Prior knowledge:
The protein has 482 residues and is α/β, with parallel strands linked by helices.
Amino acid sequence: MENWIKKQAALAPTRTAVTNGTTSLSFAQLAQTTDQLDRKLAALGALKEQRVALLTDNSLAGYLTAMALLNAGKTIVWLNRRLSAQELNYQLADSQVNVCLYEDQLDVNGLNCQTISLSQVKATPEQAFTACSDFNTTAAASIMYTSGTTGQPKGVVQTFGNHFSSATASALNLGVTPADEWLCTVPIFHISGFSIMMRGLIYGMTVRLTNRFDAEEIHQMLVNEPITMISVVPYMLKKLLAVKQAGQASYNQQFRGMLLGGGPIDQATLKQCQELNISVVQSYGMTETCSQIVALSFTDAPQHIGSSGKPLFLTQLRLAEDTNEIQIKTPALSPAYLGQPEKRAAKTTADGWFKTGDIGHFDADGFLYIHGRGDDMIISGGENIFPDEVEAAYAQCPFAADIAVIGVNDDQWEQKPVAFVIPNEQTLLARDLIDYGRERLAHYKVPKNFYLIDQFPRNASGKLQRFKLRQFLDEHRAKELE
């Protein structure tokens, strides 16, 4: 299909493609700017290979560089700026990348490839280069590495067709208007952020970039700017609710709602959204599916609090009979893990369904509810315990600001649940937490031990990294509550 950047420049040349609140570019200006950047990148020799790494935050320069790589027909290898040089070098070697473009303030010391800063690109004279006229739907637009809780992360190959299918399914669910402006506060080097950029190109929609998540600042943007949608993960939503509940002003009249991803959330928080008249659409997806494949509609959301919704128009979904593992078929699904066909094969059933590793159930109306990761499930005395369920039961606990649950080995029960707690201002006792849990959960689901922690380890998209909590215990870095 025709180059999306060029197509939108022809269809809606004066419509704003991207803004960071200070500088805005129309689709015509975006097309012109990406052509200029490609000629500069060509002069630097950065476009000789098919894959080019990009290390950036949510800056306008980073956005434009990513668009320039797509415009040149290259594959973006997205690098997570929070990773160590050792972790990044693994991904660079695995993807066979020779050039890494990087935001100036980010550290590239120790990277085993040629590094070119974005300011260096900007200052380079142009050289003749012809942009890509068509986007091949089977060609790789991007490669993203999964978080990798055990072993090395996998490079997820995402085609233009995958991204187009994802954006199309989302539009059929949420609707699209010419006035839409999507606030991108989630990282663009994760699928949650990059999918917003791709939707912007496909829909002809404005992308509003912001470089960090500060609840007060984001609230003011939602109040004072014509933002219609924002993508959030649970901890972002809770922080925004706290600001809203403090009596702050209402969001602008064009605001339509929030797309919530990144894991399940407790029903108490979603009911707070209802009380504050904030439309929240829960969704379910992964890097391998280029964002959401299951979501609630705005219409269904109030009646099905806690559900991730129904499979989107292009998605087939079933549950494995023996485990209730979620299995899917969708044109948004990545065709491969880079250089690891055996791992992709291991995730595919004999009849061609992709095994997500997540556990869930359908209600009587066909709405999907996510229990959590199958590998997070705790088997204690033959009973299955899902950390998300336990955490949801403690969501309104007056003794703790937040809680995270993992399973640890136990001689008597095989495994037992334990919890990490961020305390509030009052004195915290394990006995109080146990009693609170037993009023709301089966006794075997109540954590047997509680450990104090200042903040939870999360990845760049805000997801809790439970494996790091286990490391805290193994390394005796956690203080147990008495």
